[in-house]
């Protein structure tokens, strides 16, 4: 067999599905796994009779690659990536390319890019979103790194990516950690989306008494309209699944403790580092944190009091209000994510194309949704758009939906149903639209106890004053 077009290290679920995707597009792939028996299992199983070269060492992998060599790592983020880079480099030549396709922290990617470029190698850090199915059939691929490496990897990465209206959901995003940063923000938005959908479900269950079949009908109907998205679609499907033993809806038997892998936390941490408000994403992370305190919550429920959920009338009208509240909150959450990308662009020296980012998220990835096309249109029309809320299309949606969001947040507070993402989205919107906030008192307090000074509304910006 001829030499391979690309090598891949790491045949776990994502890696295995990705190499099958690459091979199906006409490329030959050399594969290696630290547990070598997995290579043999793959070659005798899903890879049998296809254009794969099974390798039992990294040296063998490197010898079977066309030059410039392209080696993709699909291993656990963190130390494992650094370990494999050190194992691979002795078998590569200057100009060869290492691709990290895992969920690496973007600052690690910045460090690794610098280190490899100084040694004469090239590095691509790329986010890959879409889970197992996306990896196999076409994920959203978000590459960044050494710019000269992009033309070398572009044919493969664009070939395997999802397509929307014939366009690949894969474009070069910028130097060093830009690709992994965009993937991180994607995951932060995903956290917000999932939490808001869960809150919509919780409201319909607790305030309207909807059963699984009615919940399925509501989400399925929403998926036919503006909320059409992968997450709404799978949510509708979840309500149709029954436990085999009890015949009850499976979702009601699942323990209410959500786990996380860290990308939502990273998004919130960097938002804090850059001073960019992303409260809805942060609230989604904190909601998972408090869900993990199950035993404490059960104990507290026997001590702490508050209003109890009440079954309300006007079911159809309230379902529509919840839909509009979800839509408005979703726009506020995406606005926060895009604003964070804008802040990161300045802080880290990237030049991001926001229309391309929205395009990449339209297919293959977890947050793929119909309205991402409108986000692309907004940034194509105004590349320097400061905030998505200011785009005429999204301003119109918010104008239409905010009365419902206010109503639902008020009802949730009145009846004690926790909806932290809905509430934070509304607070973000009201804060962003107000020309004067309460921070003048905060600054007076800071000057009082710490002589931190303040600016005045009747003096030019940049002049600072202190009152003893």
Give the tags:
alpha/beta; 468 residues; two-stranded antiparallel sheet; 19 helices; 54% helix
Written description of the protein model:
The protein is of the alpha/beta class. The protein is built from 19 helices and 9 strands. It has helices at about 15-25, 35-45, 60-65, 80-90, 105-120, 130-135, 150-160, 180-210, 210-220, 230-240, 265-275, 280-290, 295-300, 315-350, 355-360, 370-380, 390-415, 420-435, 440-450; strands spanning about 5-10, 30, 50-55, 70-75, 95-100, 120-130, 140-145, 165, 165-170. A 7-stranded mixed beta sheet has the order 3-2-1-4-5-6-7, with helices on both faces. Strands 8-9 form a two-stranded antiparallel sheet. β4, α4 and β5 form a beta-alpha-beta unit. The chain starts with 5 loop residues before the first strand and ends in an 18-residue tail after the last helix. The relative contact order is 0.09. The mean pLDDT is about 95.
- From the N-terminal CA to the C-terminal CA, the straight-line distance is 81 Å
Rg over alpha carbons: 25 Å
Which outline best applies? globular
Element order: H for helix, E for strand: EHEHEHEHEHEHEHEEHHHHHHHHHHHH
Assign the structural class, choosing from mainly alpha, mainly beta, alpha/beta, alpha+beta, or little secondary structure: alpha/beta
Into which percent range does the helicity of residues fall? 40-55%
Instruction: Give the overall pLDDT as a whole number.
Output: 95
> What is the beta-strand fraction?
5-15%
DSSP summary, beta strand count: 9
């Amino acid at each position: 067999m001829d030499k391979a077009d690309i090598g891949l290290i790491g045949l776990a679920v994502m890696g295995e599905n990705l190499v099958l995707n690459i091979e199906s597009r006409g490329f030959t792939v050399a594969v290696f796994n630290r547990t070598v028996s997995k290579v043999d299992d793959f070659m005798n199983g899903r890879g049998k009779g296809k254009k794969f070269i099974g390798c039992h060492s990294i040296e063998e992998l490197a010898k079977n690659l066309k030059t410039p060599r392209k080696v993709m790592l699909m291993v656990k983020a963190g130390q494992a990536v650094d370990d494999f880079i050190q194992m691979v480099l002795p078998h590569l030549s200057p100009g060869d390319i290492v691709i990290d396709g895992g969920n690496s922290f973007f600052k690690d990617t910045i460090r690794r890019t610098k280190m490899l470029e100084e040694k004469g190698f090239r590095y691509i850090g790329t986010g890959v979103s879409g889970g197992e199915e996306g990896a196999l059939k076409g994920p959203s691929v978000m590459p960044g790194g050494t710019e000269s490496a992009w033309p070398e990897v572009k044919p493969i990465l664009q070939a395997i990516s999802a397509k929307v209206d014939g366009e690949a959901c894969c474009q070069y995003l910028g130097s060093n950690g830009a690709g992994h940063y965009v993937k991180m923000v994607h995951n932060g938005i995903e956290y917000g989306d999932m939490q808001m959908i869960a809150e919509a479900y919780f409201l319909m269950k607790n305030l309207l008494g909807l059963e699984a079949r009615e919940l399925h009908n509501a989400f399925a109907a929403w998926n036919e309209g503006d909320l059409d998205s992968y997450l709404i679609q799978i949510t509708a499907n979840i309500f149709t699944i029954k436990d085999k033993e009890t015949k009850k809806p499976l979702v009601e038997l699942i323990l209410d403790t959500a786990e996380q892998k860290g990308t939502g936390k990273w998004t919130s941490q960097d938002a804090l580092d850059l001073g960019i408000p992303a409260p809805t994403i942060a609230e989604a992370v904190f909601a998972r944190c408090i869900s993990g305190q199950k035993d404490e919550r059960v104990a507290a429920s026997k001590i702490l009091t508050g209003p109890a959920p009440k079954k309300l009338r006007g079911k159809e009208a309230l379902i529509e209000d919840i839909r509009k509240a979800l839509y408005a909150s979703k726009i506020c959450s995406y606005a926060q994510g895009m604003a964070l990308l804008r802040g990161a662009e300045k802080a880290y020296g990237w030049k991001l194309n926001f229309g391309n980012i929205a395009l990449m998220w339209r297919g293959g990835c977890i947050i793929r949704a119909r309205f991402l096309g409108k986000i692309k249109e907004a940034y194509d029309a105004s590349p320097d758009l400061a905030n998505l809320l200011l785009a005429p299309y999204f301003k119109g949606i918010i104008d239409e939906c905010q009365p419902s969001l206010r109503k639902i947040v008020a009802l949730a507070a009145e009846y004690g149903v926790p909806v932290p993402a809905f509430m934070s989205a509304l607070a973000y919107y009201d804060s962003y639209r107000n020309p004067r906030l309460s921070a003048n008192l905060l600054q007076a307090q800071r000057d009082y106890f710490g002589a931190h000074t303040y600016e005045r509304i009747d003096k030019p910006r940049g002049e600072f004053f202190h009152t003893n």
